[in-house]
Specification:
This protein is mostly beta strands. 0% of the residues lie in helices and 56% in strands. The protein contains no helices and 5 strands. The N and C termini lie far apart (26 Å).
């Protein structure tokens, strides 16, 4: 089941294939408001909403 997340920061961009490491806030579900770091393939900007399949990966913490 995919979960929507909002990109809150682009940490870095690397590789020739357009991979970005981004910090995201989970918008729905039991882990709502948690902040995670994910690798994203393709163009992405701060404020974009992404659908991710595994929100449990790489949890950083919550925003207070």
């Amino acid at each position: 089941m995919a979960v929507p997340v909002e990109v809150i920061e682009i940490i870095d961009r690397s590789g020739s294939k357009g991979v970005s490491r981004v910090r995201c806030r989970i918008l729905e579900g039991p882990r709502k408001d948690r902040v995670i770091i994910r690798n994203v393939l393709g163009p992405v900007r701060k404020g974009d909403i992404l659908m991710i399949s595994e929100p449990e990966m790489e949890t950083v913490g919550t925003i207070e």
